[in-house]
Write a structure and sequence with these properties.
Elements: H1 3-16, H2 24-35, H3 37-48, E1 60-65, H4 66-70, E2 73-83, E3 91-101, E4 112-130, E5 133-150, E6 169-186, E7 192-200, E8 205-213, E9 217-223, E10 231-240
Antiparallel strand pairs: 1-2, 1-10, 2-3, 3-4, 4-5, 5-6, 6-7, 7-8, 8-9, 9-10
Length: about 240
Amino acid sequence: MSLKRILLFTVLFGFFCPAVEIPSIAVKKVLDFISQPKNFFLEMNTDMESPAPPPFDTRFQFSTEFSWDLITALNMNLKFMVFREKAFWPSITVGLSGWNMAGLYIIPKKYFTGSCWGITPFLTLSRELKSDMRFFLGAKYAMGFLDFQINALAGMMPGGLFDISSLSRIKTSYRDFAVFTGLNYLTPREREVTALAGYYLPLRKMYAGVIYSKKNSAFGIMLYPDSFLLVHLFVNLQFSI
């Protein structure tokens, strides 16, 4: 993060919020978000994924994270159990999730240009502990590309200490390998509860979540201990066969 950006943020924050006392940890998290926007999109990518095995007694599932769809971050998650558990061999599930910030393409180019997308292939191994419970673990490789420019800011106050034009463009990407593990539990009412945790190895970034699934929908919460936004809530629409 450049010195200009830090100083500009500090001045604007002090101008608009002179009477508000903000804990230093909150200011640090905001600065972290500004300096590393890719972390926000990586977490968004993680929210949209569904790396657990398909629901009990099914082999295929399609899902989409509905709340992100509403703001035109169109996304999907596909997974297929290519091998069912047999003897000492675990079940094997392969999957792919992806997203694209489609809403960016409808903004007039005089105000904004750019693209923003991500894709994650994953592999999951699972084994039943009981008829209504199974353990799973796996790995994934998250990839994303962000390149957008706010044309309305370009050229404003060029040069000098507060060069606002330098804030007009964000271009970054992420390629991060992660491992994950978790448990599925099938309730007596045919609802599925999933608890999972993962770790992005290059970033040393942890996350965890709990998901409550019905036949065609799921509600979940994700936790990112070192994130600007600690808690993420989401709603999935899904179809399984």
